[in-house]
């Protein structure tokens, strides 16, 4: 923080020195201008008012991946008290990490789903089968649908989960699907790997 | 036709004068006059700076290419409007931009590569000017000739990048990227000449964004293969993206204030483009900090833009009190916005330093407006350039602070999304 402040101040010192003292910008001096006043009536610049709204992508409601027969509602997810990400309550329903971007918004949106339950396949059981080019649809609460294209599928050990690549802030819209994979550690009651599908808007 | 030819010759003279180096003689369209090359070759004159590390090289290339697209549009639009003084200073600024890109290439890839790049790039700038002259004179022959030159440029520059990258950048891919860049510039000029300012500014925004993507791709191909991965790092990408958006804010508000302060017919479209950038910035803040923070951000940012425009309107109407009022309100914005950012980043950014940096930003924008209104185009371009460059530095500090703030809130560990019921199948994959 302190470093940032010092650098900004140093930059400022140089920049302010470049603003001629005669400029009205060097408060509050004035300078004559040679531009004639607009003939009759106000100029468009007089009436300008900046936009004060922006289009916010609606929250996701449903996930569809035809290539692996996924069609599921999406549960909103947050973080657990221990700092780990919460996972869907049901193995048959996927979830959206709601403290991050929405699918289609700038940045990485993250959807999670179980590969299995204790008894059978989960909603993301076949997600590992996806190949680059497969299409992923996200239906939103406002009735719109976002379309994404798979660009790569990776399997990583849980001990080296790439938090920075999956969640970290960038402004490029992307979609990450996360589930479990690899061999099962019966003693820990957990799979040893995670499968991550990276997709981009199509 | 005779008047047009005279203008073209004069324009070519100033073009050559504005570029510190011309590697080959150029011929004015429709004229037998051959203009001599000016300046010196890169290798003979400039000291070669130390090579930049790949992330910095890529950011610098993006920034310079983005500024090139803006200055080239300035040059072409000035020519179309018949404002020779403005076109001349735009050309001088383009020459400085070309020199900076040449220095960058020289320091990283050697003076021979820099010389080759510079001669190609200057040919590009000259052909763009010629094309704009064809538009201004409604001479399809001149435009066609410029297009032929530009097609050759696209092929040669793609070859240059393919060679410099030792084949890592496919020649066809590079040519397609350069072609798109040229098309953006030609199409915005066509629209501007046809008084379709909304289309001209829409294409210009697309062209500006394309130059950033092109700069990133070129840099990734030019650096040693093992070092290109640095451009995938989230903090680098955030710096690049914030830099593009914040620098575009400068580019667009400079364009809008110039149009506004002379009550130009292109003001409304230019102001709409500013609004487009403001929406994009708010969208970025929403992604990083959530919708509520984005709404607060946009309210403050809109105050900032409104007062810059109010100042512009006051200059236009010679309303000294209006100018003072706008300056005073900008001071309020600077402090509020700095406090907002300090809070949003959990004190990773310091409000006091930020407020002073914002003051410098506003002062430069206002002075740019004053200079343009007084037809002091050199000062106007210098101010615009410095404001643009400042924004990229600020973007780096924002990226560090924003990135760290968001990263501190990310989930830890790995998701537990399996209970083992299908372990026999899953484990065999």
Keywords:
heterodimer; A: 202 residues; mainly beta; Sortase, Chain: A; eight-stranded mixed barrel; disordered N terminus; B: 429 residues; mainly alpha; 2 domains; two-stranded antiparallel sheet; 15 helices; 2 strands; globular
Q: What order do the SSEs of chain B take from the amino end to the carboxyl end, as H and E?
A: HEEHHHHHHHHHHHHHH
What letter string, H or E per element, gives the SSE order of chain A? HEEEEEEHEE
CATH-defined topology of the domain at 61-201 in chain A? Sortase, Chain: A
Fraction of residues in H or I helices of chain B: over 70%
CATH-defined architecture of the domain at 61-201 in chain A: Beta Barrel
Instruction: Give the low-confidence spans of chain B.
Output: 1-46
Strand content of chain B: under 5%
Question: How large is the count of helical segments of chain B?
Answer: 15
CATH homology-level superfamily of the domain at 61-201 in chain A? Sortase
Distance between the termini of chain A: 39 Å
The beta-strand count of chain A equals 8
**Largest interface by residue count?**
A-B, 94 and 103 residues
Main beta-sheet annotation of chain A: 8 strands, mixed, barrel
Shape of chain A: elongated
Major sheet of chain B: order of its strands? 1-2
Number of domains of chain B: 2
Describe the oligomeric state of these chains in a short phrase. Answer: heterodimer
Quote the average pLDDT of chain A: 86
């Amino acid at each position: 923080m302190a470093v940032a402040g010092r650098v900004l101040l140093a930059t400022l010192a140089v920049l302010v020195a470049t603003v001629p003292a005669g400029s009205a910008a060097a408060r509050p001096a004035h300078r004559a201008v040679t531009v004639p006043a607009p003939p009759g009536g106000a100029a468009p610049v007089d009436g300008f008012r900046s936009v004060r709204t922006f289009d916010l992508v609606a929250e996701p409601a449903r996930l569809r991946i035809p290539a692996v027969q996924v069609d599921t509602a999406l549960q909103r997810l947050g973080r657990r008290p221990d700092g780990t990400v919460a996972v869907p309550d049901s193995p048959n329903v996927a979830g959206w990490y709601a403290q991050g971007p929405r699918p289609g918004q700038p940045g990485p949106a993250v959807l999670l789903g179980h590969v299995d339950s204790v008894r059978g396949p989960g909603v993301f059981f076949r997600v590992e089968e996806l190949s680059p080019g497969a299409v992923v649809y996200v239906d939103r609460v406002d009735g719109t649908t976002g379309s994404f294209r798979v660009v790569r599928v990776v399997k990583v050990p849980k001990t080296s989960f790439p938090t920075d690549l999956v969640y970290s802030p960038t402004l490029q819209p992307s979609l990450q699907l996360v589930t479990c994979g690899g061999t099962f550690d019966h003693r820990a009651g957990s799979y040893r790997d995670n499968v991550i599908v990276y997709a981009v808007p199509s | 036709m005779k008047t047009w030819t005279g203008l073209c010759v004069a324009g070519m003279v100033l073009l050559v004068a504005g570029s510190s180096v011309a590697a080959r003689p150029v011929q004015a369209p429709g004229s037998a006059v051959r203009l001599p090359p000016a300046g010196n070759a890169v290798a003979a004159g400039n000291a070669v700076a130390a090579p930049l590390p790949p992330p910095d090289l890529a950011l610098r290339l993006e920034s310079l290419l983005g500024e090139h697209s803006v200055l080239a549009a300035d040059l072409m639009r000035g020519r179309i409007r018949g404002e020779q003084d403005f076109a001349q200073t735009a050309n001088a600024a383009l020459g400085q931009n070309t020199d900076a890109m040449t220095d960058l290439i020289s320091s990283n890839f050697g003076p021979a590569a820099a010389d080759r790049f510079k001669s190609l790039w200057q040919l590009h700038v000259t052909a763009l000017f010629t094309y704009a002259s064809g538009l201004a004179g409604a001479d399809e022959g001149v435009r066609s000739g410029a297009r032929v030159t530009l097609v050759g440029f696209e092929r040669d520059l793609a070859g240059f990048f393919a060679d410099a990258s030792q084949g890592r950048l496919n020649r066809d891919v590079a040519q397609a990227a350069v072609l798109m860049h040229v098309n953006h510039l030609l199409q915005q000029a066509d629209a501007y000449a046809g008084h379709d300012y909304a289309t001209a500014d829409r294409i210009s925004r697309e062209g500006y964004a394309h130059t950033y993507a092109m700069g990133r791709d070129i840099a990734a191909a030019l650096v040693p293969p093992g070092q290109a991965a640095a451009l995938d790092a989230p903090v680098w990408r955030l710096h690049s993206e914030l830099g593009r958006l914040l620098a575009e804010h400068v580019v667009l508000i400079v364009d809008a204030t110039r149009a506004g302060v002379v009550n130009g017919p292109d003001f409304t479209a230019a102001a709409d483009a500013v609004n487009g950038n403001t929406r994009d910035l708010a969208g970025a803040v929403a992604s990083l900090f959530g919708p509520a923070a984005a709404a607060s951000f946009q309210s403050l940012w809109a105050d900032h833009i409104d007062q810059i425009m109010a100042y512009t309107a006051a200059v236009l109407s010679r309303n000294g009190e209006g100018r003072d009022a706008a300056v005073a309100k900008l001071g309020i914005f600077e402090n509020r916005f700095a406090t907002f950012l300090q809070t949003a980043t959990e004190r990773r950014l310091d409000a006091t330093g930020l407020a002073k940096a914002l003051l410098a930003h506003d002062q430069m924008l206002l002075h740019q407006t004053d200079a343009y209104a007084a037809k002091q185009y050199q000062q106007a371009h210098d101010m615009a350039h410095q404001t643009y460059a400042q924004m990229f530095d600020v973007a780096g500090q924002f990226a560090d602070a924003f990135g760290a703030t968001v990263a501190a809130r990310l989930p830890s560990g790995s998701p537990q999304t399996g209970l083992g019921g299908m372990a026999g199948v899953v484990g065999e994959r």
